[in-house]
Amino acid sequence: MKTLKDLEVDGKRVFIRCDFNVPKDEFGNITDDRRIRSALQTIRYCIDRDCKIILASHYERPEPGKYEEKFSLIPVAKRLHSLLKIKRDIFMAEDVIGSDAQAKAEALGAGDVLLLENLRYEAGETANDESFAKQLADFADIYINDAFGACHRKHASIYAITKFFDAEHKAAGFLMAKEVNFFSKVLQNPVRPFVAVVGGSKVSGKLQALTNLITKVDKVIIGGGMAFTFLKAQGHEVGNSLVEDDLLEEANNIVKKAKALGVKFYLPVDVVAAAEFSENTTVKFLPVQEIPKGWMGLDIGPASSRLFREALNDAQTIMWNGPMGVYEMDRYSKGSMAMSNNIAQTHATTIVGGGDTADVVQRAGDAEEMTFISTGGGASLKLIEGDLLPGIEALK
Ligand code: AMP
């Protein structure tokens, strides 16, 4: 895969597709600017080479054609400006391909940065529309994709746009190259023991990833809602816990496959259970054998955290995707926090994927301790599943 460094970019007009889809709180403040910080290397490289830089990103899911303020990239432009620590302004376009964007792009000087408005204000973006992609392509001489988090989607600014640039004029940005190299290196040639920690809500969302991981790892640790499908498949009463009944057989197949391959498989041995999906209710710490009818497991219990810590002790590589419980509620966040602490304390190479998991690590104060935190949840899952990402294929 070509990267920005392989191209002649000096003084050129460069279109950089970024992933600035950052979380905000109820007041519109950006709560985690990791995705903006991660794009700085690519942007700075272009500023230092006197490029005229056009940045583009999607933000959440606005209704196309409706310019609602809450979906605007203006707060991103402000944060980007303060993170870049440059004196000159960052220009913010009022539209995506309209007259304001055109005029501002036209007026760019050497080293200037323009941010287009939310790509998804235009219906052509998610439709992978070629004429919209052509209009985006017309902004620049060079196309750089640094939006790892959006690379699993065939959208106009990721996929259709690449048609309009030949091999000497398109490449991956530095963030993208780092993400892809990290995952492929670890998946192809991990230092062993290699342990996968998989959690989150459902088995269905990660079935393919689990099936592929089983063939590569030495141990699998399962937590979160998905553990209950495995536990029920093994004959446990799981009450009202999250279960996918249509996947019980599939869950057993995964366990059988793990056994056949000599992969150690760990499930929670105890849970934090509640009678309702709420923080304001009685909770019980119970062995998985004792979940009463009508109750639901919302976090792994302390014995599971200790067991998982033991299983992680000798790991040399750990890949973690998915929280151990409903970490958004304080009462059910301890299992995920303990997992974050346990992983951070190992001497292993540690890779964290998924927005929720990155959030857990951040809240646990372990972000600095992890080797690598991926900026793309869905995209990193696709890589783990062994899939090709359209955005990366289109650059080849
Ligand atoms: P995913 O998007 O599949 O990685 O799932 C993340 C979500 O799983 C988080 O929002 C958690 O609240 C949720 N989750 C984790 N454990 C449980 C559980 N035991 N029951 C219900 N939801 C859970």
List unreliable stretches of 5+ residues.
none
- How many discrete structural domains? 2
Bound molecules: adenosine monophosphate
From the spread of the alpha carbons, the general shape counts as elongated
Overall pLDDT score: 96
The assigned structural class equals alpha/beta
Succession of helices and strands = EHHEHEHEHHEEHEHEHHEEEEHEHEHEHH
The number of E-state strands comes to 15
Distance between the termini: 6 Å
Question: For the largest beta sheet, what order do the strands appear in spatially?
Answer: 3-4-2-1-5-6
- Residues in β-strands, percent: 15-25%
Q: What's the CATH architecture name of the largest domain?
A: 3-Layer(aba) Sandwich
Computed Rg: 23 Å
Residue share in helix: 25-40%
- CATH third-level topology of the largest domain: Rossmann fold
Q: Can you tell me the CATH class of the largest domain?
A: Alpha Beta
* Main sheet makeup: 6 strands, parallel
